[in-house]
Amino acid sequence: MDIREYLQNNILLMDGAMETYFDVLEDKKESIAERANEMDPNLIKRIHRSYIEKGAMLIRTNTFAVNHVFFPKREEMRKCIHLAYEIATEAVEESQKDIWIGASIGPIPEDGELEDREQLLKEYEFICDSFLEMGCKIFIFETFTVWEDVVKIAQYLKEKDENLFIMGHFHFNKMGYTKEGLSIQRFVNLVGCQKELDAYGFNCGIGASHLYQLLEKVTFPSNKYLSCIPNSGYPYRMRGKKIYSDSPLYFAEQMEKVVTLGANIIGACCGSRPSYIEKLKERIDLHRVYEKKIKKGREEEIVFSNDQQNPFLAKLNRGKKVIAVELDPPFNQDAKKLLKGAELLAGEEVDILTLADSPLARARADSIQMAIRIQNETGITVMPHICCRDKNRIAMRSQVIGAHINGIRNLLVITGDPIDRGEEDRIKMVYNFNSIRLMDYIKDMNVELFQEEPMVYGGALNYSGANVKAIIERMEKKIEAGCSYFLTQPVYSKEDMERIRYIKEKVNTKILCGIMPLVSYKNARFIRNEMPGIHVPDEIFEQYHEEMTREESEEIAVNISVDIALKMKDIADGYYFMTPFNRVNLIARILKKLREELGE
């Protein structure tokens, strides 16, 4: 019977774990399960037979970790795949049952040797071709986190044979997110509509009870076959080994609930044994398929119901020029100067204050904590920067929730400056996210937690890169991830202004053009020579000289800053002033003169 025909009216029972079950067997001759295809084929066949005897109707080949990391030579990989398929075929033939065989393909570790994504995909194609040579008709991609990779490989396979049955299994944590920051609901929305996949779902990472808790909140975009292959539970470590509790009855009880949400394919992953499959067969009616909760209509976009929810964004969207001013939190515990500056700017009718998040990887007071205090004490709207360098996914989520609780509704999401090379041994960078992934993550949090008052976030625009097409593509990805506006690097030259004009014509978004006053000859020389991506032209640099007083330098800075702002007034949706050395009075002078020139 064709697997599609079977799934129309039945739940398909898959096998359980191979690797973790292999690890606990005392009579194994190999430490790596996949190498046992050659060194101990009878043991692998015995494992397959055990699952078949307990009720599995689909078994997976012992090939999850067949890739260049464990099998450096292509011919080794090919041989291992062929042996694995032969062993699985023998196990099925000896059982004298109608059992399907699926190619188990795990994610290739990105170890730096295959940095090029195309190289990575070529290896997946080689793995798939090796299975096709054996006549394989079912492909199971397991424990992936990047769904786009699976879809690309599935496209490759469907071009070879459109009748292949392709399943994509993805890894989520207990909170319902992939390591890329994609929520389970957004994942379902995206992957549930991919025609190249015949079935999709979840394996590894979480246990059955947490999988049920996550899935009961999900609505599905289609009736595509859903596969649920959770772990037996959560492991603990003993003497360097992962140990799983053995609770097949509890697992089956939890999977009974999962099935009611519309699962079409069930089985077990890490920590499971044949007894888990036996209990699933005993307790679950495999001839009853439950309906999924299908989403009706398109997902609604989050919109602001009135200007009071976010006056900064409301003004920006009305086409009024906004003024953002950046302040740096202190290096020590004394915030008096920062608070005094914020009070002064509040009196200057600045629309929003931005607080940097330890720029140049030098520790300062926390940007969100300082933003909360400033907003509470001055009433001015704040936009703390939030960078990806220092916090893992757990800390990032906690920080965003805490910010929201304390009234923060605007963020500037940036990747963050890397640690200096000399410090890398002492200070570890995290980078669980980059700016786009973090935006996606916050977008999910808006849907999940903050629907009534969503977080609004902007992104940085590095306009000076050589490849303007790549800059635009990156901006569009940020916009797709929910980015509402962009703040640019400091602008000084006519060429940079024209570059921003060109980008603005190509991308439908709001751009706040960056202005950073140069306050001395030394400052101008440093920015000109040591800050990559910032171009200070001769006509500006030559206005400064070493003998100038502070007052003379600041007068030049005011004039240059206002001149730049006026030249960009038909390009910029607003201005983003970076305060040099906390000279807030200088920014106030610039704002006053700019408003006079604009006739405000």
Structure report:
It contains 22 helices and 18 strands. The chain has 600 residues and is an alpha/beta fold. It folds into 2 domains: 3-283, Alpha-Beta Barrel (TIM Barrel); 311-598, TIM Barrel (Alpha-Beta Barrel). Strands 1-10-7-6-5-4-3-2 form an 8-stranded parallel sheet. Strands 11-12-13-14-15-16-17-18 form an 8-stranded parallel β-barrel, surrounded by 6 helices. The chain has a two-stranded antiparallel sheet with strand order 8-9. β14, α16 and β15 (456-461) form a beta-alpha-beta unit. α5 packs parallel to α6 (117-132), α9 packs parallel to α10 (248-259) and α13 packs parallel to α22. The chain is elongated and about 95 Å long. Residues 298-307 have low confidence and may be disordered.
Strand content: 15-25%
Distance between the termini: 78 Å
- Which term fits the overall shape? elongated
- Main sheet properties: 8 strands, parallel
In terms of per-residue confidence, which ranges show pLDDT below 50 for 5 or more consecutive residues?
Answer: 298-307
Number of strands: 18
Sheet/helix structural class:
alpha/beta
Number of helical elements: 22
Provide the spatial order of strands within the biggest beta sheet.
Answer: 1-10-7-6-5-4-3-2
Q: Which CATH first-tier class of the largest domain would you pick?
A: Alpha Beta
Percent helix range:
40-55%
The CATH level-2 architecture of the largest domain is identified as Alpha-Beta Barrel
Mean pLDDT: 93
Q: Which fold does the CATH topology of the largest domain refer to?
A: TIM Barrel
Radius of gyration using CA atoms only: 29 Å
Total number of domains: 2
